[in-house]
Amino acid sequence: MPYVERDGTLKVIGLYGSPQPGKAEELLRETDPEVVAFYIDADKASKAREINLAFQDAVLRGIQSSALGTPHHYPMNGGKQNVEGQLDLVAAAAANVDVVYTCTEVATRTEARRLHTAAQMRQVMLDGLALKQTYIGKKSGLFAQIRAVDSTGKTYDQAKAELDAIVW
Questions:
Q1: I want to staple 93 with a disulfide (CB 3.0 to 4.6 A). Which of 33, 39, 49, 122 is the partner?
Q2: Are 126 and 69 within one domain?
Q3: pLDDT in tens, 127-145
Q4: Is residue 41 one of the residues assigned to a domain?
Q5: Domain check: are 68 and 125 in the same one?
Q6: How many CA atoms lie within 13 A of 2 on its CB side?
Q7: Burial level of 71, CB count in 10 A (0-12/13-18/19+)?
Q8: How many domains does the chain fold into?
Q9: 70 and 119 both lie in a single domain
Q10: What is the pLDDT of residues 66-98, one digit of tens each?
Q11: Whole domain around residue 21: which residue ranges?
Q12: What contacts 51, CB < 8 A, 6 or more positions away?
């Protein structure tokens, strides 16, 4: 049974295993709805961080584009290729120039620096933007599901199970 700390509106803002004189002297059961809500709010924040990390990982895995006529993978995992490549991509799209860019042919898994026309680079950029928009939409939908989890009238385990069902 935790001792609870409350804010000025009497909302539970902290739980302690022992009394905190002048701070947390009220004892509540673990099954008290306010205690359950406190735990679920913390779990919601943790789930949101998990979804954000999954979103970042998905973006950094790179993109696939058929701008060269067949599917090729374009890495977005940081490092020199990414920084230089992003500059090349933007410059090629804006200045209408051809560039050499490293990508991996999906069918053969052959990585190579390949010549891309400005139009091909624009297509790679558009494919990347489309994929990122898909990921942003997915993340927004998952965040809405997280916000919708309500512990009112539920045990901790029931509410936690709803959160656990939310996966990238």
A1: 122
A2: yes
A3: 999 999 999 999 999 999 9
A4: no
A5: yes
A6: 18
A7: middle
A8: 2
A9: yes
A10: 999 999 998 876 555 555 556 666 776 777 888
A11: 1-29
A12: 139, 142, 143, 146, 166, 168
Which region among 1-10, 27-36, 68-77 has the lowest average model confidence (pLDDT)?
Answer: 68-77
Interatomic CA distance for residues 38 and 74, integer angstroms: 43
CB 94 within 8 A of CB 48: no
Are 124 and 72 members of one domain?
Answer: yes
SS3 141: helix
Interatomic CA distance for residues 167 and 58, integer angstroms: 13
CA distance 46 to 48: 5
Question: Residue 102: pLDDT above 90?
Answer: no
pLDDT averaged over every residue in the chain: 91
pTM (global) more than 0.90: no
In a 10 Å sphere around its CB, with 0-12 CB exposed, 13-18 middle and 19+ buried, how is residue 28 labelled? Answer: middle
In a domain, 50, yes or no: no
Task: Give the residue carrying structure tokens 């993109």.
Answer: 63
